[in-house]
């Protein structure tokens, strides 16, 4: 600044008032524009941005939670289905066992029936054979004895029942042995 | 006009002409008034301060007047700059309590940076902050804020304690430390704040001037031109260096302000 004598240089370490005032005015204007208008503006937008980002994160969290719950549900259903299948298998096995058991019992019963029928038949045959044999043995023995004795014993034997009695004794003996 | 007041290229002095190097002087920082408005003579630094303020406001107005949640390029750049001061200085040094001082710190940083930047902007090429009045004005604002915050937070006695009695030291030391702290906090801090910025910009401008003038001074002969080109390269290097210093000084100014204010906000122990 060339104030008084142009030849005398202003000491650069001494501030002059007009410049301080101008500097202060300029700075104040800048400060007020920042403080009142620009920084509130940008801070509000930064806040909005922060909220938007946080909102996005919240949404993502919610989606994840939902996915998790659906997964749990599926797992539960799957477990239930497995359980059901196992139960059915078990049941079928049990039923199969029962059926086999029943069939076996039935088979046994039929076998026994058949055997019993067979026994009855054999017994009847044996009885028939025995009675037929008795007749034949009696008559044959009588005939044979007659030939040996030289006379017919048939009438006598028939009358006295000797043969029957003898055979009855034989049978009783056999019974006793058995 | 004395020889000192002539611009270097007006002297027509060159190397090997038997004429001394027209070194830059205090006169490099003194300007003829451009116009007179009332009692005030408007000069170049004043004009630069005014235009600088308009540039800052214009830039941030364009970026932040209608800000969008999804930012455009300009807004993104401005947001990065704002975030640098907001988070890098205010939040870092003062924490949550620094929030009310963010506008002050932001405007300080960009105002100082702009005044410094004029040093390398073509046609202007003069750092307004190398005129001590501007750093002094800013330091005054910082000092007033510093004192106000100190006494408002701690009350009068607490404020004095905050300024003069650092806590947690053995008793005898306070006898020496209290006056030192008093002088340091109340006088030295604002003074150094202003002088640091002024001296850095003043010295930087002189450095660039020396090499610019030397480049011009050594032209004319073949040998001189070789010298001149070396000097020219140095001018470029120094200009880049100055770009760094300008931002650094603006940062230092803001960081120190934040540090003082954060001390002022500390509760008395």
From TrEMBL, chain A:
* UniProt membrane topology term: Single-pass membrane protein
Pfam families xrefs: ATP-synt_B
Q: Does the keyword Lipid biosynthesis apply?
A: no
Q: State which residue ranges cross the membrane.
A: 20-39
- Family annotation (InterPro entries): ATP_synth_B-like_membr_sf, ATP_synth_b/b'su_bac/chlpt, ATP_synth_F0_bsu_bac, ATP_synthase_B_chain
Coiled-coil region(s): 57-98
Keywords tagged on the record: ATP synthesis, Cell membrane, CF(0), Coiled coil, Hydrogen ion transport, Ion transport, Membrane, Transmembrane, Transmembrane helix, Transport
Subcellular location per the Swiss-Prot or TrEMBL entry: Cell membrane
- Nuclease found in the keyword field: no
Annotated function: F(1)F(0) ATP synthase produces ATP from ADP in the presence of a proton or sodium gradient. F-type ATPases consist of two structural domains, F(1) containing the extramembraneous catalytic core and F(0) containing the membrane proton channel, linked together by a central stalk and a peripheral stalk. During catalysis, ATP synthesis in the catalytic domain of F(1) is coupled via a rotary mechanism of the central stalk subunits to proton translocation. Component of the F(0) channel, it forms part of the peripheral stalk, linking F(1) to F(0).
Give the protein family.
Belongs to the ATPase B chain family.
Query: Which PANTHER family does the record associate with it?
Result: ATP SYNTHASE SUBUNIT B, ATP SYNTHASE SUBUNIT B', CHLOROPLASTIC
Query: Mind telling me which HAMAP family this protein's record contains?
Result: ATP_synth_b_bprime
State how it assembles. Answer: F-type ATPases have 2 components, F(1) - the catalytic core - and F(0) - the membrane proton channel. F(1) has five subunits: alpha(3), beta(3), gamma(1), delta(1), epsilon(1). F(0) has three main subunits: a(1), b(2) and c(10-14). The alpha and beta chains form an alternating ring which encloses part of the gamma chain. F(1) is attached to F(0) by a central stalk formed by the gamma and epsilon chains, while a peripheral stalk is formed by the delta and b chains.
Q: What is this protein called?
A: ATP synthase subunit b
Q: Which gene encodes it?
A: atpF
UniProtKB/TrEMBL annotation, chain B:
From the Swiss-Prot or TrEMBL record, state where the protein is found: Cell membrane; Membrane
Residues annotated as transmembrane:
46-65, 101-119, 131-151, 197-219, 225-245
Database matches in InterPro entries: ATP_synth_F0_asu, ATP_synth_F0_asu_AS, ATP_synth_F0_asu_bact/mt, F0_ATP_A_sf
Provide the membrane topology annotation: Multi-pass membrane protein
Keyword Membrane listed? The answer is yes
Tell me where it mainly resides: membrane
Q: Which residues form a coiled coil?
A: none
Give the similarity note. Belongs to the ATPase A chain family.
Which NCBIfam families does this one have?
Answer: ATP_synt_6_or_A
Q: Which HAMAP family match?
A: ATP_synth_a_bact
Q: What is this protein called?
A: ATP synthase subunit a
């Amino acid at each position: 600044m060339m104030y008084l004598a142009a030849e005398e240089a202003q000491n650069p370490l001494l501030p002059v008032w007009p410049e301080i005032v101008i500097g202060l005015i300029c700075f104040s204007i800048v400060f007020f524009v920042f403080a009142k208008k620009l920084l509130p503006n940008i801070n509000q937008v930064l806040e909005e941005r922060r909220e938007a980002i946080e909102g996005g994160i919240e949404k993502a969290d919610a989606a994840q939670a939902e996915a998790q719950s659906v997964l749990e549900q599926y797992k539960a259903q799957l477990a239930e289905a497995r359980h059901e299948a196992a139960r059915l298998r078990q049941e079928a096995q049990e039923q199969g066992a029962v059926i086999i058991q029943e069939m076996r019992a039935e088979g046994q019963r039929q076998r026994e029936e058949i055997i019993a029928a067979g026994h009855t038949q054999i017994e009847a045959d044996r009885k028939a054979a025995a009675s037929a044999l008795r007749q034949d043995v009696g008559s044959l023995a009588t005939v044979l004895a007659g030939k040996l004795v030289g006379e017919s014993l048939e009438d006598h034997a028939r009358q006295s029942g000797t043969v029957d009695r003898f055979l009855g004794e034989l049978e009783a003996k056999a019974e006793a042995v058995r | 006009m004395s020889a000192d007041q002539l611009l270097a290229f007006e002297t027509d002095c060159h190397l090997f002409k038997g004429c001394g190097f027209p070194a830059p002087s205090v006169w490099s920082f003194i300007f003829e008034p451009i116009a007179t408005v009332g009692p005030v003579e408007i000069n170049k630094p004043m004009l630069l301060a005014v235009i600088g303020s308009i540039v800052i406001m214009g830039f941030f107005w364009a970026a932040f007047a209608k800000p969008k949640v999804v930012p455009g390029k300009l807004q993104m750049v401005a947001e990065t700059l704002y975030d640098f001061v907001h988070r890098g200085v205010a939040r870092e040094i003062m924490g949550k309590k620094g929030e009310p001082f963010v506008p002050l710190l932001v405007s300080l940083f960009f105002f100082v940076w702009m005044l410094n930047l004029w040093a390398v902007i073509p046609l202007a090429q003069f750092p307004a902050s190398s005129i001590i009045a501007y750093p002094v004005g800013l330091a005054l604002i910082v000092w007033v804020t510093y004192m106000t915050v100190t006494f408002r937070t701690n009350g009068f006695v607490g404020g004095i304690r905050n300024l003069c009695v650092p806590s947690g030291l053995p008793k005898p030391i306070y006898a020496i430390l209290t006056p030192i702290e008093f002088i340091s906090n109340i006088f030295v801090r604002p003074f150094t704040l202003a002088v640091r910025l002024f001296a850095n910009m003043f010295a930087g401008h002189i450095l660039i001037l020396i090499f610019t003038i030397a480049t011009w001074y050594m032209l004319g002969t073949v040998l001189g031109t070789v010298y001149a080109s070396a000097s020219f390269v140095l001018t470029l290097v120094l200009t880049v260096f100055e770009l760094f210093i300008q931002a650094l000084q603006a940062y230092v100014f803001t960081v120190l302000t934040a540090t003082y204010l954060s001390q002022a906000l500390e509760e008395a122990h």
